[in-house]
């Protein structure tokens, strides 16, 4: 019995690829996601993901704030099968709904796809998300999108990846022309040419060639583009990094693919290469050492809590990443922090808008658990012995506001609301260290404030007022002898809820000055 269970888990782990797409708004994430889902047959109609993005209120159970703004507070999970793989895409919200959840979601991914607009290159939100992936050391695959438009030269983009992100790159394919002249890509690994055909650039034909000097390319692309391709690939062969699987796996080298998501060009070859190169679920660190995904005992941790997906029931969904073993609906597991056994009876899996009930799931999968208010971000659940996964990082907020209660009599509810919403990770809370005891809230994205205000009113009956502050950076300060007087110019010193000192700065200059004045202090971007 035990032997079959372990080989079953092993087989399921081998199949799984769990990743997130990181990009700046408008780079084409929705379009690419949709094409990937189409290949996997997970959705029947092109446009479904886009339709979801455009008119979220199609389903009645999104929270009101989502309806009002027509955007999603949720980062959901999409699952499909392709070529024997079980693929989980973690959606990372962009636009105004960018929040700390976006970062936390990345902790549940085993690899990332970095999507870049060929004309715009590396943009602000991409940099932030990249840095989180980098810290975790997960492999990062790059898809350079919108090749059907004029953009930067591929060499300039590679140089930009190195200069801005500090990562070396290895092009897996190379464009033959660009924009209106684009006629295809040369696959450097397989020595084949993928061609666009027709004005709509839709049909793709694949031709095997001897190498990039093959006269067939000249016939297909013309002398000018064939010469250019030869020169560029010769240069790349001599001066570029060779493909190195170990470096890719360690997140030190990013394989680069060129394509056009909207034209479905290069997407399928990208998906196939990606699934081959991307890692299966790996072991995860816990307080008692690494936990192997193939361990027979189920374990997982909660990386996100979504409130009010159904306002009628006011339920909350806790998103759990499975780390080991087999999940079965109705199973009893230990809620490690609470020291209690709980039954997982209403698990849900997410595919676009539908919420399906899951019967079984394996490491790498994400399930949504009905949460009657018992879970916190970072909680571990395990079968048998208690397994406690390492705490999730607290990310540096960038927007700050002072909070006051309109009705002083509601102070008790206010405190309850603050405590609960901080635990859920909706906001971060800081206390001032001066003579007045004031509460400052910190968030990564503006929407977190709106969600906070809405929930304080709807769930705790408290009207609050937020007063935006001009701070833009937060750094946790580690020092035995901290001197608050050195954090006064365009900055202030506060404490987080664990009592750690955090300095808030209005600008980078103020932060650098404080670093110079406090050479013995450590300035950390994440909570220690
Ligand atoms: P997201 O904000 O990253 O999810 O971006 P979307 O997928 O919504 O795409 C933003 C815009 O870029 C839309 O108008 C898309 O149609 C367009 N787009 C996406 N991929 C391509 C592409 O390969 N070529 C061109 N020309 N436009 C694209």
Considering the chains and any ligands shown, give keywords for the structure.
alpha+beta, 28% helix, Rossmann fold, binds guanosine-5'-diphosphate, 14 helices, seven-stranded mixed sheet, globular, Alpha-Beta Plaits, 528 residues, single chain
Structural features, described:
This protein is of the alpha+beta class and 528 residues long. 28% of the residues lie in helices and 30% in strands. The strands form 7 sheets. It has an 8-stranded antiparallel beta sheet with strand order 27-24-26-25-29-30-28-31. Strands 2-3-1-4-5-11-6 form a 7-stranded mixed beta sheet, with helices on both faces. The radius of gyration is 25 Å and the shape is globular. It starts with a helix and ends with a strand. Guanosine-5'-diphosphate (GDP) is lined by residues 23, 25-31, 94, 145-146, 148-149, 260-263.
Brief characterization of the structure:
Pfam families: EF-G_D2, GTP_EFTU, RF3_C. Helices cover 28% and strands 30% of the residues.
Q: What's the gyration radius in Å? A: 25 Å
Estimate the mean pLDDT confidence.
86
The helicity comes to: 25-40%
> What's the N-to-C terminus distance?
44 Å
What percent of residues are in strands?
A: 25-35%
Described by its quaternary structure, the protein is: single chain
Domain module count: 3
State the total count of DSSP E strands: 31
The CATH topology of the largest domain comes to: Rossmann fold
Low confidence ranges: 43-75
CATH C-level class of the largest domain is Alpha Beta
List cofactors, ions and other ligands: guanosine-5'-diphosphate
What is the CATH architecture descriptor of the largest domain? 3-Layer(aba) Sandwich
Strands side by side in the biggest sheet: 27-24-26-25-29-30-28-31
The chain-level structural class is alpha+beta
Total helices: the number is 14
